[in-house]
Specification:
CATH class of chain B: Alpha Beta
Order of helices and strands of chain B: EHEHEEH
Oligomer: heterodimer
CATH superfamily of chain B: TusA-like domain
Number of strands of chain B: 4
Number of strands of chain A: 0
Shape of chain A: globular
Order of helices and strands of chain A: HHHHHHHHHHHHH
CATH superfamily of chain A: Cytochrome c oxidase-like, subunit I domain
Shape of chain B: globular
Strand order of the largest sheet of chain B: 1-2-4-3
Helix content of chain A: over 70%
Number of domains of chain B: 1
CATH architecture of chain B: 2-Layer Sandwich
Largest sheet of chain B: 4 strands, mixed
């Protein structure tokens, strides 16, 4: 990858920070909703309370942090800036934050009009982000696999959001009523398209960079994104065939065969990604203890467990507890990965911005006014990250158990999830506070010139 | 970091986590004396380094023998260091 990049290309600190700090707020909110409502809400998949919890996690935690990370990574890794970054991030962040809250509240308070408000806010935020991000990525001269996979993830996000808005408007009485097959369609594009493809794309960059490993195999980088995209499209065939307009064509293809083949391909991709990641982490060049690596290992183990259970239950036609696979996918894989990456990305961004301002002082021949930039591992201390990891791990174990034995484990699981998210929020806020102190010292030094 | 010869500052950052490779390389470049150059060994292309070196420094990157990437850095106005690097890597593009 050509990398004639400058530290100056990084967007202002507030751009990614507002997204990253907002994410655990929604994680905490999801845990509080679970605690408030009790185990009866996980009796089946479609209770309004569980839909609110799932969307606080997928929109509020996952999408929030993924959009923030993309705003940082597109300029720095792809070498192309997003104009007016502070304004742009406000235009995306505020409606995403309020839209997610509105959507959750629409289910929790059963106010149909809030679905329309949420659809407008989320549609505005996501469609503008997708349009700008795709335009920027297409202009980038970078030809790394991460670029093409980010484009694929954005396409999957576009489909997920469009389906989500259609379904939400159904609750608001604006479109046809709720459809289970369209919901599966929405879920597979969201989790297996947008979330999975983007996490793989970012893993290609951050694992070799921060975990000091070798690169992923070239074949892996070249093909896995395309294969996943095609397989997720295959999963959609059955949902499309169930639509009235297409139903006459249904006899020409056997949708269940396509679904079975697509599921098998996806399962293989998930296992290949997880085992490759575990392997290159195992063979890393520097064998130092590292909290982010524990998050990666946990995430990949969850992905392997989820895929194995999915495959076995399909092969032997056995019913699994309804929330077992979603817990392993959303909390075990996606939230774990993002939580771990936050411990690398946020300190790195803080270091980057303080270094840029120190450099400006050196350029102004004001070396004596520079501030001491803490070592990157001290910005969020390893011990704080490790303790938060332990809470996160315990919350995952208890959530998995709660899907099987809700009466015993539901409340401890929800409580531990709340603790883990509050701890994450505390760690991130402490890092932001440190940045603010140092940034104030620097602006005083520059201002006193 | 080791000083192999009077003119070469050898800096192996292959197993360091960002931003240490960048920080150490910039420090080493800033401390170059007349006739000296930095030979930096890294496991990947150094993201951000070239933008940070600015016009005061010249650089040349090639595939390394013991590492994936090898970067030579010398002061742009130091003709002696420039000639030494040229002699090592052949004619610069």
């Amino acid at each position: 990858m050509r990398a004639d990049l400058s530290l100056q290309q990084s967007p202002p600190f507030s751009v990614p920070a507002r997204f990253l700090v907002s994410a655990p707020l929604f994680g905490l909110l999801a845990a509080l909703v679970l605690l408030w409502h009790g185990p009866e809400i996980i009796t089946h998949r479609w209770t309004p309370e569980i839909l609110a919890v799932i969307h606080f996690l997928t929109l509020g935690f996952l999408a929030m942090s993924m959009l923030g990370a993309m705003m940082q990574l597109i300029p720095v890794l792809m070498g192309i800036i997003i104009p007016q970054p502070v304004l742009f991030s406000s235009v995306i962040h505020t409606p995403l934050f309020l839209g997610t809250l509105s959507l959750g509240m629409a289910w929790l308070l059963q106010i149909d009009q809030l679905f329309i408000v949420a659809s407008a806010l989320l549609g505005f935020s996501f469609y503008i982000f997708i349009a700008v991000a795709i335009e920027r990525l297409l202009r980038s001269a970078n030809r790394h696999a991460t670029r093409s996979m980010m484009l694929m993830a954005l396409l999957a996000l576009l489909i997920t959001v469009s389906l989500g808005i259609y379904l939400a408007l159904g609750y608001g009485g604006q479109t046809e009523t709720f459809s289970h097959s369209l919901t599966d369609f929405h879920l597979s594009w969201g989790l297996l398209g947008w979330v999975l493809i983007l996490i793989i794309a970012v893993a290609y960059q951050v694992i070799p960079m921060f975990q000091i490993t070798s690169e992923y195999p070239a074949m892996h980088r070249r093909w896995i994104g395309w294969i996943i995209l095609i397989a997720v499209s295959g999963l959609s065939v059955e949902a499309i065939m169930s639509m009235d307009a297409i139903r006459p064509l249904a006899g020409m293809i056997e949708p269940s065969t396509i679904t079975a083949i697509s599921s098998a391909i996806l399962a293989c991709c998930l296992l290949i990604f997880a085992t490759t990641t575990l392997w290159i982490l195992h063979k890393r060049l520097r064998q130092l203890p590292d909290t982010t690596m524990k998050f990666w290992q946990l995430a990949m183990s969850s992905l392997i467990l989820m895929t194995s259970l999915w495959a076995l239950s399909t092969l032997f036609d056995k019913e699994l507890p309804v929330f077992l696979l979603p817990v392993l996918m959303i909390h075990g894989f996606a939230m774990t990965t993002i939580n771990g990456m936050m411990y690398k990305i946020l300190p790195f961004i803080i270091w980057l911005h303080l270094s840029v301002q120190n450099k400006n002082l050196r350029t102004m021949d004001r070396r004596e006014s520079q501030v001491k930039v803490p070592h990157i591992r001290k910005i969020i201390p390893e011990a704080a990250g490790l303790w938060q990891f332990r809470f996160h791990l315990l919350s995952l174990i208890l959530l998995v158990l709660a899907t099987v034995f809700p009466t015993w484990f539901y409340y401890p699981a929800a409580l531990l999830l709340a603790c883990a998210q509050a701890f994450l929020l505390f760690n991130l806020l402490k890092a932001v506070y440190l940045y603010n102190i140092k940034a104030d010292e620097l602006s005083d030094a520059i201002g006193s010139n | 970091m080791s000083d192999n010869t009077s003119s070469e500052i050898l800096l192996d950052v292959s197993d360091l986590e960002p931003p240490e490779p960048l920080v150490l390389t910039l420090e080493a470049a800033e401390q170059l004396k007349p006739g000296q150059y930095v030979r930096m060994l890294h496991r990947r292309e150094p993201c951000m380094l070239f933008g940070e070196l600015g016009e005061n420094f010249s650089h040349y990157q090639r595939e390394g023998f013991t590492s994936a990437v090898e970067v030579f850095i010398w002061r742009s106005d130091d003709t002696v260091a420039g000639s030494t690097v040229r002699a090592i890597v052949g004619e610069l593009p």
